[in-house]
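Slide 14.
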Amino acid sequence: MSAARSFRDLRVYQLARSAVSDIFEISKGFPREERYALTDQIRRSARATKAMIAEAWARRRYKAVFINKLDEALGEASETQSWLDDALDSGYLDTDQFSKMDAAWRSIGGMIGRVIDRAADFCKYASDTDYRGTVMEEPVSLDEALLDDVDDVTA
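Slide 15: predicted structure.
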């Protein structure tokens, strides 16, 4: 068992952070005329995915809110994949670049889906908060699969 004390401890957040960095690097080479269309949109959706994972963690006191934020993150991850399709179709990415990036975003989506399915594991200490929202000291315990398993994720 691993313990997550912060959203930064979550493997899905770490993978999203890395994938966002890849999006930023590759999109630097997109044509200037795509600046306000494809470039901004793919960067925005990629960043939003990562940010919503962090926001979900902060709101895990309420299971429904936690799930809602993760559902939004899943939507943004899918949107990022759609923008990757456009970049491939426009010739801004080669097939190898696309395949690598798409696989990462499929994994992120699959991991978010598993976290949604296991929301109760993440929110189980919600009743241990006081009226100000101060959470108890004990970290959330998670399966290794939620934190580390990326290879067996299907979209």
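Speaker note: The chain is about 65% helix and 5% strand.
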